[in-house]
Write a structure and sequence with these properties.
The chain is of the alpha/beta class. The chain has a single domain, classed as TIM Barrel (Alpha-Beta Barrel). The protein is about 35% helix and about 15% strand. The strands form 2 sheets. Strands 3-4-5-6-7-8-9-10 form an 8-stranded parallel β-barrel, surrounded by 4 helices. The chain has a two-stranded antiparallel sheet with strand order 1-2. β3, α1 and β4 form a beta-alpha-beta unit. α1 packs across α2, α2 packs across α3 and α5 packs parallel to α6.
Amino acid sequence: MEFRHLGNSGLMVSEIAYGNWLTHGSQIEEDTAHACVRAALDAGVTTFDTADVYAGGKAEEVLGRALRGERRDGLEIFSKVFWPMGEGRNDRGLSRKHIIRGAEDSLRRLGTDYLDLYQAHRFDYSTPLEETMRAFEDLVRQGKVLYVGVSEWRAEEIEQALKIADEMGFDRIVSSQPKYNMLWRVIESEVVPLSEREGIGQIVWSPIDGGILTGKYKPGQELPAGSRAADPNSGRFLRDSVEDQVLLERVQRLEPLAAEAGLSLAQLAVAWVLQNPNVSAAIIGASRPEQVEDNVKAAGVRLDADLLAKIDEVLGDSVQRDPALTKSPENIRG
């Protein structure tokens, strides 16, 4: 395993992080979840990412139990707040009330007294940004949160938060957690340049695009039994991709490129995001320990410029680049 700074902060993170969206507390049994976490730890992963909303809080509980007994100072545990955690009007968003309560609840579920990174899971248009930033700052001052980040914020929203932090003497945002992979590059034109200037690191999710970039979804064939796309719940996130026969065919054409590099297609996809110097870590998820063991082999891999150019040529206009595709709900309390 190799390690990188989280932005320009002093915090070092494993360049492969383990995340448990859609798996812990829902798709897989707890003993399998523990085995996946164990596989990550055995491979040198020290960075673990979750969120309060994953499986309605159960994902945090499962991860907390899976990490029990590990030396806390040797881990980096990240969580997030924003999405509804109850029926009440204040059980959602980035109000002071929801952030403070959300942090306390996440700490309890994870079985820890601090979070290494606490992230605003989306931008909240119904709460003054000053209120949101002050609530995060108070958690930092209390020692319950060490660093603050955001997830799926646009460049102009990050810029607003940085301005407030500078004017009010708050700790600055150190990280951004966007979706990013060979097919989804919407952060490259605006978020990444801003982040490079301001010392913010990307912790990217979906580096294999929910399994699309493993090559297991074949054009013209039935969805593999037990796959994420075949699942009635998680499959909705992949519906457009698995129905795009041109995209699936192009992904198949990446297989020989991966083979030439001595990589599986999944390893190539994870390694690809790590070639971006603004990426601090790539989050992998897994429903089986073998998937963890395969994906972590992307750590430390260097892809040459010729291979990167061939990937671009194969994928062509299947790549999404429009920064406007990064969106937060307009009215989370509506």
